[in-house]
Design brief:
The chain is α+β, with helices and mostly antiparallel strands. The protein contains two helices and nine strands; from the N terminus they run H-E-E-E-E-E-E-H-E-E-E. It has two domains: about 30 residues; about 110 residues, Lipocalin, CATH 2.40.128.270. Pfam families: META (PF03724).
Length: about 150
Amino acid sequence: MKGMSVAGRIIVLGCLAVLAACASGPGSQQGGPVPTAPLTNTYWKLVELRGNAVNVPQGQQGEPHMIFRDDGRVNGFSGCNRFVGEYTVTGANLLFDSMASTRMACPDDNYESVLYDVFADTAGVFLEGKVLKLLDEQGHGLARFEAVALP
């Protein structure tokens, strides 16, 4: 900075301060961990089912998802039919009960029957950041959901 005017030095120092603030602010990649989404009243989009990625075909009437309610009820959409039921969480254990669905004829049952089998096999839950995993009795992943912000 030798030979630079005082005004020039102030401008350079000001730019460096702005760059440092941007690099360490909340939007930086070096920021802290993503806060964990609450289990209840969150829209959980199905992204993986028994190790296979879930890709919603164009023209499908909606994406598979579920929402856990505060009152112990769960509802969602399987890709063709809507479902409802009850759930119980005790620590890391999660059990589904009394699951029921509409009975529309589905031209392409990509996920529905597997998803309902997963509900029956679920014994645990893993929740971290925006990821929810349904686990079997041995702790193996059955399905993975991601939290989606509602408009």
